[in-house]
Amino acid sequence: FTSALPSSMMIGRTLTPGVFMSISRNEMPVCGLPSLLVRTRQKIHSPYCPSVAQVFWPVNIDPDADPQAARAIAVLASIMRLKVTAEIREALGATYSPSASSSLSSLYPGWGYVSAGAEVKPEDADKVIQAMEKIVSELRAGVVSDDEFSRAITPSLEALPQNATSNGYWLGLISQAQGRPDVMERGKLSA
Questions:
Q1: CA distances (Å), origin 7, targets 70, 100, 141
Q2: At CA 66, angle to CA 164 and CA 1, rounded to 5?
Q3: How far is 25 from 46, CA to CA, in rounded Å?
Q4: Do 74 and 149 touch, CB atoms closer than 8 A?
Q5: What is the spatial distance between Cα 190 and Cα 185, in angstroms, rounded to a whole number?
Q6: What are 179's strand-pairing partners?
Q7: Collapsed DSSP state (helix, strand, coil) of residue 124
Q8: Eight-class DSSP state of 191
Q9: Which residues is 168 bridged to in the sheet?
């Protein structure tokens, strides 16, 4: 166990048993954020698998200090998932199951990201990455319809009453009661 920030490394061409893969990765500084933060995009090519196009955007949020911002990032990822599905799956027809998600770290506050990804044909990878970056540009500009917002938050809102009576939810909170009582207090729901 260490308290140092996780390190990142560049992965170039790699030979794995029986499979030849190449990974190309670009790192670009994020405008307006500390120079430590970069957004990355990555394409993975293999003769046995489709290409994986992924884009990561850094998020500088401490989920323990600012749980409301962490919830907002989760909603943003849900909206992004809807937009990625509409654009990459339905409009471009490039993949069946694109994804979008967020990850925030309590261990390393401020070390998190929002990502989008899809398995696509190698020839579609650049087009898909451009579509993902366009979606993020729209989200930064606040282009979110009422319908998209409603569809993004409804599953979470519907799960709240179920969580209040779920053993799994409460056991998850109780498991943190001694080491992180603040999480237990924040997670209380009325039955």
A1: 23, 23, 31
A2: 90
A3: 15
A4: no
A5: 12
A6: none
A7: helix
A8: -
A9: none
pLDDT at 40: 58
- Report residue 157 as tokens: 């809102």
Alpha-carbon span 10 to 178, nearest angstrom: 39
pLDDT in tens, 90-148: 888 888 889 999 999 988 888 899 999 888 888 888 888 899 999 999 999 999 999 99
Ramachandran class of 142: left when φ > 0, alpha when ψ lies in -120 to 50, beta otherwise: left
pTM of the model: 0.70
Q: DSSP per residue over 35-53, as a string?
A: TT-EEEEEEEE-SSS-EEE
Q: Determine the Cα angle at 188 with ends 182 and 190, to 5°.
A: 160
pLDDT of 17 strictly over 50: no
Give the β-pairing of 112-120 and 51-59.
antiparallel
The residues facing 101 across adjacent strands are 115
CA dihedral sign of residues 63, 86, 97, 49: negative
How many Å separate Cα 66 from the centre of its chain? 18
Q: How far apart are CA 28 and CA 92, in angstroms?
A: 26
Written as one string, the DSSP assignment of 101-145 is: EEE--SSSTT-EEEEEEEEE-GGGHHHHHHHHHHHHHHHHTT---
Distance CA 25, CA 15 (A): 17
What share of the chain has pLDDT > 70, as a percent? 72
